[in-house]
Amino acid sequence: MWLIRQFWLFYNIDPSLLKESPNGEKIRLAIYGFISMTVIAFAFFSIGYLAYLVTLSWTAAVVIGGVLGWNFSNLFRLILNTISIRQSGISGTFIGSAISTFLRATFLMLLIIIIIKPFEILLYEDQIEVIIQENEAISEQKLNEEWLDFIDAKINYYQYQMEVLAQEKSSQEELLDPNLPHASDSLIAITQSSIQRLNNQIESSKRLRTWFFQKKQEYIESFKETSSYSNNLVERFRILHKYFPETWIFTLLLSVVFLFPILIKAFTKDSSAYYKKEVEFERDLITKEYDAFRTQYQKQMLEVTGQSITYFETCLDPPFNNKPIIIRDYSEGETEFKTWVSKHCS
């Protein structure tokens, strides 16, 4: 019985008003509450999985899923508590009430689609992963091996040239030893000029080797970007809708389940014994509070003005105010009325 009570409470049902309702209605409302609770649990799970796809962290998925799932739960129960085909967008008309219901249901439907889609990705995870691998294989084929071989050859060439020039420079530096028997000022000057030329050649080879190495890294990075694009969330949604369009049928079916507790409540309020009693209870409560306000208002006006002044009403059914008081102007028929009285009453 405790569990059934929780289903009622989750469906915004007051158990104290349900006591005199038929058992069939009690069971039916408990089932609606169970469906609502299942919908919210599904939302928590699906939003959490969506957060995982974005962050690739189960810790973040639990936190984000909990926060967003709780917000969806509050929104769902708010709409559940306020929706009704009798609510007035245009007072007292079915059209206004239907518009109000339609707008709320449409907004909720968009949220439901956002919540259902991550679950569909989970259902088709293996098939989507296969397609992702195929896309990566196709991207790998686009990698130009000949171009990489050419770059590697250039890098190796300039590296080898740097080593050769470095050896030649080392040999030239040995000639700068002043203790050598053939050392002279002119020979030292020629050797220094040769070393400077070698330094310039080494620096040039180093720049070229660095340039080709950077180009290789940029090419590899650009390949990684093109080959890893299919791992992101948007690409998974694209694959889901491109290769598995039948998932929209699943989306439609789940949407009906999501909306069922709300729509069944909206369209059965007038025929439900519980909701009739709830309306009477709320109406009595509002009327009592309003009568208390009028009494207090009259009391306060008596203290302030010394006169018994009642609160001025503009409608025939306060405080609901659905029937405005119509003040007619009979001045135009005054002459005609006097003529009729003088004619028939003299």
Explain the layout of strands and helices:
Layout: H1 2-10, H2 23-55, H3 58-82, H4 94-123, H5 125-141, H6 145-174, H7 185-228, H8 233-243, H9 247-268, H10 273-305, H11 334-344
Helix pairs in contact: 1-2, 2-3, 2-4, 2-9, 4-9, 5-7, 6-7
Protein described:
- With 346 residues, this protein is mainly alpha-helical.
- The protein contains eleven helices and no strands.
- α2 (23-55) packs antiparallel against α3 (58-82), α2 packs across α4 (94-123) and α6 (145-174) packs antiparallel against α7.
- It is elongated, with a radius of gyration of 42 Å.
- Residues 87-92 have low confidence and may be disordered.
Number of strands: 0
Integer-rounded radius of gyration:
42 Å
- Stretches where pLDDT is under 50 for at least 5 consecutive residues are 87-92
Order of helices and strands: HHHHHHHHHHH
* Ends distance: 79 Å
Sketch the major β-sheet: none
Average of pLDDT: 79
- β-strand percent reads under 5%
Helix percent reads over 70%
Structure annotation, total helices? 11
* Structure class: mainly alpha
Principal-axes geometry comes out as elongated
